[in-house]
Fold each of these.
Amino acid sequence: MDEAGVDKTVLFCTAPHPEKAGTLSELEVEMAVLNKILGGSNTKDDNISRLKKNIAEVAETDAPYGEPYLYRQLIEFISPDKSTAEMALGENISRLLELH
């Protein structure tokens, strides 16, 4: 990654995790996932399945991608209002997965 000039300090709060990539090839795979999501080529069912898998993965550990408390504070700080912060912190995913 260093040889390729890839800076792994960028954090993503999405399904793709480029920060986990150890090689340029792995980074390309992660970025392709992000491109599919942003391009709308995944179906709603694909997205729900992926999100359920991601939630299960997160539930298996205490803090798999950093420090959740600090990330929560960051999201609350940068959100333009409380409603936007709540959506980013789980309201959208909860609605999509029909959890309530």
Amino acid sequence: MCGHAGQFGLRKTLEESSGRMDLFVVPTIGFDLLYAFVIVRLGRRDLVWINVTAYPTADWVARQITEAFPWNEAPRYMIRDRDRIYSAVVTRRLRAMVSGTNLPHRPHPGRTALPNG
């Protein structure tokens, strides 16, 4: 029973210091494509930032991260997909915002192994 309580506490601590960002395609009524960028803070499940553009670039994504979090409120870990849009520019911005952390972001592996498969 004690092991479960410790795992729950660790999970709660990680959730409190983590965020999730995602970029996805939104079709318009005129069949154009827009790209929506969303940042969510996992601990409170708050929508932190949302913005839309027709032409996303790595510099644009890095600027969105800076605008979403003041320098002293950035989450310790940022979960993201392995999209090419998150290039070295975004990685450098995340590292600059979270001092004292070598790997502040965690790219999601895309496929997760099944526990009994």
Amino acid sequence: MDFQESYAGLSDGDLLRPGVTGTWSVRDIIAHVTWWEEEALTHLPLVLAGGRPPRYSVTHGGIDAFNAKMTEQRKPWSLAQVLTQQDEVHRRLVAFVQGAPESSPAARHVRSLPQARARHTHLAGVARCNW
């Protein structure tokens, strides 16, 4: 099941209802996946060029701290804003992944992005099962 299919057909109320995982709603999971896809778009060009992005422990105090910061930053966003951003960012990421050179040693990292996204699909699907 595709990530977007996992929440397709849910009402706005279902997408906004907290409790899918902890206090997060499906909307929060969508925002989470989107900001990590944004991070991928930021850092993958460097990775493909053989570089290493800065460590989140150095730049943000760790991944949990980064997630907390981004959660707060996106909290005021409407559901429509989150969905629009998700569509735009994912489209850009797919184009980037499809254009990544096969010969690059870092290409395997680029090609693994769909699996990383799929790990979150089950969380959005949990909401469907709970309602």
Amino acid sequence: MDWLWATRDDDFDEYPAVGRITSLPGLLTTLPELYSGYIAVGPNESRRLFYVYVRSEGDPSSDPLILWTNGGPGCSGLQGLLMEMGPLRVSSDGSLVRNRHAWTAFANMIFLEQPAGTGFSYIDEAEVGRA
């Protein structure tokens, strides 16, 4: 899988459909431009880190890229995406609504689930238990 290291619009257009999220359950607002996938890391690339990339709603070609990892170990990066500075919030009834204080208004953001084994990140079965 290609990594979405697109910092200019013309670079990003090469990846128009890679991991694009087109709908979410409970969404009560417009969907921001979201992408998700896995990055293979570690020995033999046996660990897969799950990420969600949110394209800036400002000027993606000149806005900074922020890599967000929640504290931990073992705290899901989705907590930052859905409860802190991401473009969507989970409301009390479980629906998704806009976060009017989202950092994605002025920055491209990657929310990363780490280490492997946290959230949707995982370790290949053959590697479990190895140091």
